[in-house]
Design brief:
Elements (H helix, E strand, L loop, with lengths): L8 H10 L4 H19 L2 E4 L3 H14 L9 E5 L26 H8 L3 E6 L19 E2 L2 E5 L5 H8 L5 E6 L5 H7 L2 E4 L19 E6 L2 H11 L23 E4 L11 H16 L3 E4 L8 H16 L18 H12 L2 H14 L4 H25 L2 E5 L14 H5 L6 H6 L3 E11 L2 E10 L5 H12 L2
Parallel strand pairs: 2-3, 2-6, 9-10, 9-11
Antiparallel strand pairs: 1-3, 4-5, 6-8, 7-8, 7-12, 11-13, 12-13
Helix pairs in contact: 2-3, 7-15, 9-11, 9-12
Amino acid sequence: MIDLKNLTIKKAHEHFSKKDFSARELAESYLKNIESKNPEINAYLEVYDDVLAQAGEADKKIASGNFDVLTGIPLGIKDNILIDGKKATSASKILAGYVAPYDATVIKKLKAQSAVFLGRTNMDEFAMGGSTENSAFGVVKNPLDISRVAGGSSGGSVAAVAMGGSLGALGSDTGGSVREPAAFCGVVGLKPTYGGVSRYGLMAMGSSLDVIGPVTKTVTDSEILFDAIKGADKMDSTTHSLNSNLKSLNSKTIGVPYHILEQEGIDPEVKKNFNDSIKKLQDLGYEIKDIKLPNIEYSLAVYYIIMPAEVSSNMARFDGVKYGLHVEGGKNLLEDYLKTRGAGFGPEVRRRILIGTYVLSAGYADAYYNKALMLRQKISDDFKKAFAEVDVIATPTAPCPAFKIGEKSDPLSMYLADIFTVTANIVGIPAISIPSGTVPAGDKNLPVGLQIMAPHDHEPFLFDLGKKFLGE
């Protein structure tokens, strides 16, 4: 019997080396778990029919003795990342029946190591949301309390790992979409440096904000997955090779912008947990420094102008002509477009397209979009100044633990859940959410996360601190 609960990518690799079990046996264990738990959790939209065949190929590689750390490792893949020959819908009706014609770069890299893809995971439609309640195929429930959300938009990938339905997963993070659900479900979520991981084959939401990131049980596993998918890619001109000449972490200084913890809407128990986490870091030998990020209060507003603007541009390609859903019955081509988009897009996608079109319109671009771009640069400058004084910056990952399904029906209250995470995407820096304990919520104790941000290309800082914090 394989102990899936305590298994990690690193341990599974060691078990393969010792011939304790095969990749096929491991895949069978996960498929059994998915069959048992997924009907209730709804983490997977589809489990692939060739999982055991993939595992068989991995076993051949393992038998040869020449295999990689991810060979035979079962992974869940967010439904907006393309796998050649597999369906990819971004959890939207408008892409009904769409089959990917090529592999995303991250998938190519994982295939090169013979990782096993279990299936495509549920998500907020086109990654628009913070709770995975906006999927066209139903909400993802939190495996720790099924009355609550798993978080979003990578809720399916995170829930898959948390429920024992995969050993790791890939999600995408545009404003916290890997980190926030990771905090809600008690796992590790990494948002890499912008351009550190290729976006080729990722369905675009906000092109200057999107990053593919791993979801894992441990920081060590996060580093393993990140190392496998990182790097420059000729198919994505925004990518670069990560700088390996990092300054040493000798000073071990952690900056804490205490002033942002005074904002309304932050759960007192989350604040207490965060302060306890900072105390733990002090006990581990880190120096804590109170820092100021003068323009961080504008981050949410900046994000919710730039992101919808990019959404409105990226969603224009879904017109019912080239692929996916096509609704007929219009008097002309324009009416067919309108009918298709009206039937295919959910309310949140339509809302963001409308906001984005508005802020980009001739009369309002200067008043909103251009000002947001200027503020984005100011926020970036604030972080540069802060990183001249400290090695990393710490905040809570989310202002509250996982909330009840349907609780945040007001879009603005939902957007506020991104208060701590959007800044890393605006600035393009790497950030990780690591489990920092639990807080009381109703009749249960639910997990919350500690977010650590580092300068561009300094993921090793995050891994180093995360491992020490969790005692890995």
